[in-house]
Amino acid sequence: MSDLGIDLDYIMGRYNYWLFCILMMTGLYITVSRGNLIKKIVGLNIFQTAVFMLYISMGKVIGGTAPILTEVPETIYSNPLPHVLILTAIVVGIATTAVALALVVRIRESYGTIEEDEILELEHDMDFGSGAAQGDPVA
Amino acid sequence: MPEYLTPALAYVAAALLVPFVPKGALRGLYLAIVPLAGILIFWGLTPGTYNAFNVMGMQIGLMRVDALSQLFGLAFSVAAILAALYAWHLRDTIQQIATLLYAGSAMGAVFAADLITLFVFWEGTAIASVFLIWARRTEGSFAAGMRYLIVQIGSGVILIAGIVLLYRETGSIAFTAMELGSPATWTILAAIGIKCAFPFLHNWMHDAYPSATVTGTVVLSIFTTKLAIYALLRGFPGTELLIYIGIAMALFPIVFALLENDLRRVLTYSLNSQLGFMVVGAGIGTPLAINGAAAHAVASIFYQGLLFMSVGAILFRTGTARATALGGLYRTMPLTMIFCLVGAASISALPLTSGFVSKSMILSAGGYEKMFPVWIALLAASIGAILHTGLRLPYLAFFGSDGGLRPKEAPGGMLAAMGLTAALCIAIGVMPAAFYALLPNDVPYEPYTFSHTIVQLQLVAFVALAFALAVKRGLLPKAERGIVLDTDWIYRRLLSAILGSIGRLIAGLWKGAGRMIASSLNWGAGIVYHLHGPRGPFARTWPTGAMVMVVAFLLGMTLVVTYI
Amino acid sequence: MTGSPETQSKSMPGSILLGIDTARGGRIVTWCLLLICAGLAAAGFTGHLHGYFEIEELPAFYGWFGFLVAIGLGIAAKIIGIFLKRKEDYYGAGSTNLEEHPASDLGMEASDA
Amino acid sequence: MMSLIEANLPALQVVLPLVAAPLCALLGRGDRSWAFACLVTFVTFAVSVALFAETYAGTIISYRMGGWEIPLGIEYRVDRLNAFVLLIISGSAALVLPYARRIVAAEIPAERQPLFYTAFLLCITGLLGITITGDAFNIFVFLEISSLATYALVASGSWVNKRALTAAYNYLIMGTVGATFFVIGVGMLYMITGTLNLADLAVRIVEHGDSSTLRMGFVFILIGIGLKLAMFPLHLWLPNAYAYAPSAVTAFLAATATKAAVYVMLRFMFTVFGFDYEFQADTLRMVVLPLAVIAMFAASIVAIFQDNLKRMLAYSSIAQIGYILLGLTFLTETGLTASIVHLFNHAVTKAALFMVAGCFVLSAGTCSISKLGGIGRDMPWTTAAFVVGGLSLIGLPLTVGFISKWYLVLAALELGWWPVALMIMASSLLAIIYVWRVIEAAYLQPAPEGVVRKEAPLSMLIPTWIFIGLSIWFGINAMLTSTAAGRAASALIDSSHILWKE
């Protein structure tokens, strides 16, 4: 079975990694494929979430409980460190999302659109359109 | 002694002060005194390396004093004084500063004990000297100067490449005799060869020297090529290849010198031929040959300088150095004529002149080594020198068909410089013993034997006779307005034709018509512009999605590579 | 040839040599040279000439060798010149071959040009 | 008091600008916030100098954040390498901020300036934090602090040109992807070793042995950091971000942001991974080396065709990063020395050049090369600074650029990699072209009609010329930098386990 067929245990035993992979790819795919700036950020968020999953799942110890001190001495705890790390990472992710959304708001104010294709077209006109002045910081 | 002292320092410091010295006699005096200060720095020191220090693990030595460097240092200094006198009338601060920096760089290079210092000053001579060409301030001189600069800087770049290779190979950057054989030494030889005007690398000289100012050409003729000879004597003595290069170098310019109409260009070809003698001397490499090459280099600094000075004086007074416009100037410029004839006698190696006591050493060295082809070739080259510079040049300028010009005699400064140089040429010829005492090797040599004297006189007299007959019978090329093609054709016509078409193409693309880009895609330039130009994929602002794609792709590729 | 150089002769410092570039002057110079050559060739026989190669032992070797090579070089140059000579404007307008030397660099006092 | 400061220098290095940042925002409009930010950067620079002096002899300072035991708590670890990088970052900041006042006043509305300086200080905090910390996850956090601040700084260029917004957005997406890759890589390492301390990681990776997780981690970290330092095809965010950010920001970022990322790369490659396994060297040489070489050419050629001076310099930076990465892939002491010395040299040169661009923007209102005709006559000092900086970019002797290229070529030849050495020299020729284009415009072309351009104010000229002076001074007297870089390189090589080390 192990040589020719599919090792089901191998695959199922690592389902958290597959989940991570799928989520990551989904996130990246959205970022790549969507032209809408907000949707790209959504994709980015999914991508980051995949990483959170990876960290949290690797902190899991089989049979372990949540890492909250109990009175029972032989309690097995899950590793708390990844959780702490991911708390930080979530904060970072939120901050990033906030900055990104703020930027999108400003882009919408300046360009009148949040579709990347249209923005690129506008910018292309700024560069090469009639009377365009490259490098002129005054738009 | 302060750690950074080198004769070059005196020149550089002096050059910085030039603008603050009032123009006129005071500045003339100042410029003539600077080389004396340079001499004071190195003269009388016991041989050895001074001012050595360590930079990035490499031993730098700013002042190596030995017989060879002292000889060249002294000759350069004296020549710099004479050039300053010659330029007494000059009121052009740029040329004055450039001359000082140029002379200083040459001095610095001569005293360099290591290759890095040599390189710095090597480039220094290139950069400083180009201003002597640009100072003519015409479109043509700007272009010629640019070509000159590219070649000279190129020589420096090749030199540094060679130095890096050598350092890799030997772990040392000391400037000592090298053995040809590794890529490093070949590269260094090529760099020196450019400055030395080896055949096919020579053309910068004939392009640039006649394009400089009156005084600029005189200054240029002194330093660059002699510095290269010095480097050959120091770096490649006894390299057999140099003998053949030297012979080719001594012979081929003869034809050009006989054809040229521009007298300053005639002189550059004759200088080129004389350099050939020195290169042969370096190639033979026996103590006598080295002495001969060094002596000839020094002698040639003065007699060639004298010839350039006299032609410069003619140019200064008549506005032209074209043989076709000159002739019959002996009437009104007799002193210039006499000095020119002294120079001509020296290059013809007439006894009692400097050329006789120096050139015969190289010929004798070839004779002692029983190198018959070398000897006979050099003899032929000497005959050529007598013919084109000893006879034809003064004939065309001062005698020949009267061009109708009646200019005033050269100004006092020029006359003084020419007079002193002429005196020096004769002094060396009359008192060879004192001159020989300065040479690097201690080899007894007596130029004034009965045989030497008589055969040399025979040679000169018969060539003169041949010249007289040839002029009469029209066996020599007539002086005509026009130019003679040389290897500069390759880069001035062939290459510029090719580059011109590419340049036009790029210019067309630059204007940005999309149609043009599309139709020129087949051209390499078009492709580069298409890829890298402002609208090209390399320069374009990519959509975020595409950027992320690139990242993902690279991640995948790297993973694959890592797992293989 | 100028019209009458003699008329200016008094004012010119180099007047001693005046007439050297006439046909007669040329002939005199040529004859003098012939005499000198003959004298030197003869002088060569008065003592033994030490050379490095056997060829130098030939009578008046330097004389005739110099003469022949000089003539040969002249002719060679003439022939090569046919192939290499070009008009001055060959390299286009921006070339020093074509332009006059700028007056600012000159001191052309009293030139009749 | 003094001893207390001395004992907590590593913490002060980061905490000082961090605490100062919100205070700066509270100071209100105008010059007050600027003066405060300046003061803070000066003190930060002093701290860096102290750290550099302390570690120059080879001492390694290990500082326990919050007093936790080392592998558990966060460690700040200063050795020769990161002391050198700290010096570059805080030094650049201390020079850029005095420069910034006039140009920021021109480019950013007064009421936003305190926030601008706040972001600036946060950015400094992040970069210093990345450099000083000895903890892998902490690097990620600081990376994001600096990146978030940078996005804001870049976007603040939108007061002049709205394209700064999209540039910042793109940078944000790319930067986040990069940082996330990095954190994935760190996660992989944590999975196999159970530690995040860099020194500890190095030991445990050896104990653990080769595994596919390790390889995954290696690749994710390589690509993640590669994104942050603008390794060639991952550089796409950089040109616009540099071109449209406010001039002072560009000068600061060019000198520091990519440099800090390069430092992380060096730290991970040599200290953490240490080349115990063949695959690490192979990946570097098969992926990074060709990309570095392509960067040297492709980016330089793009620079030739650019009309916007800042964008041209940005592309030139990408090419220069190619040199730095090239030195790294040699995996020799000379190669590393070249990389580290170029880290410094390029920071100095590029900062100066971007500052010149800023001066042009201030006085001429443009940095379009085609509109800078004849500016050499109107702004002689500024343009002269560009010429000298440009020469250094080309790598002419007596400038710092020469020193870096010298070591780089030397390193290539040491390995017998002739073609690479030749390519290094050939790509320098491209630099001549793009520098010449500016010089030609500045000196040889006529000034446009009716334009009045004044020489830049002294407050901008002096910092610019200090950078230029440094690039000459360290070009002539390369002892200090090359010794420091050489020592850092040998320390890195020693800390790695390069199998083929003699």
Concise structural overview:
The complex is a heterotetramer of chains A (139), B (564), C (113) and D (502). With 139 residues, chain A is mainly alpha-helical. In chain A, 66% of the residues lie in helices and 0% in strands.
Give the helices and strands, then pairings.
The complex is a heterotetramer of chains A (139), B (564), C (113) and D (502).
Chain A: H1 8-13, H2 15-33, H3 37-58, H4 80-111, H5 116-128
Helix pairs in contact in A: 2-3, 3-4
Chain C: H1 23-43, H2 61-84, E1 85-86
Chain D: H1 2-7, H2 9-26, H3 31-56, E1 61-64, E2 75-78, H4 80-107, H5 113-132, H6 136-155, H7 163-193, H8 198-208, H9 212-228, H10 238-244, H11 247-273, H12 278-305, H13 309-329, H14 333-364, H15 375-378, H16 380-394, H17 400-414, H18 418-444, H19 458-476, H20 479-495
Helix pairs in contact in D: 2-3, 2-5, 3-4, 3-5, 4-5, 4-11, 4-14, 4-19, 4-20, 5-6, 5-11, 6-7, 6-11, 7-8, 7-9, 7-10, 8-11, 9-11, 10-11, 10-13, 11-13, 11-14, 12-13, 12-18, 13-14, 13-18, 14-16, 14-17, 14-19, 14-20, 16-18, 16-19, 17-18, 17-19
Provide a descriptive summary of the structure in words:
- The complex is a heterotetramer of chains A (139), B (564), C (113) and D (502).
- By secondary structure, chain A is an all-alpha fold.
- Chain A is built from five helices and no strands.
- Chain A has a single domain, classed as Helix Hairpins.
- Chain A has helices at residues 8-13, 15-33, 37-58, 80-111, 116-128.
- Chain A is elongated.
- Chain B has 564 residues and is mainly alpha-helical.
- Chain B has three domains: 1-236, no CATH class; 237-486, no CATH class; 491-563, no CATH class.
- A two-stranded antiparallel ribbon of chain B has the order 1-2.
- In chain B, helix 15 (372-398) crosses helix 18.
- The model of chain B has no long low-confidence stretch (mean pLDDT 88).
- Chain C has two helices and one strand, in the order H-H-E.
- Chain C has helices spanning 23-43, 61-84; one strand at 85-86.
- Chain C is extended.
- Chain C starts with 22 loop residues before the first helix and ends in a 27-residue tail after the last strand.
- The relative contact order of chain C is 0.04.
- Chain D has a domain at 294-502.
- Helix content of chain D is 77%, strand content 2%.
- Chain D is built from 20 helices and two strands.
- Chain D has helices at residues 2-7, 9-26, 31-56, 80-107, 113-132, 136-155, 163-193, 198-208, 212-228, 238-244, 247-273, 278-305, 309-329, 333-364, 375-378, 380-394, 400-414, 418-444, 458-476, 479-495, and strands at residues 61-64, 75-78.
- Chain D has a two-stranded antiparallel ribbon with strand order 1-2.
- Chain D starts with a helix and ends in a 7-residue tail after the last helix.
- The mean pLDDT of chain D is 87.
- The chains are: A mainly alpha (139), B mainly alpha (564), C mainly alpha (113), D mainly alpha (502).
- Chains in contact: A-B, A-D, B-C, B-D.
- At the B-C interface, helix 6, helix 10, helix 12, helix 13 and helix 14 of B face helix 1, helix 2 and strand 1 of C.
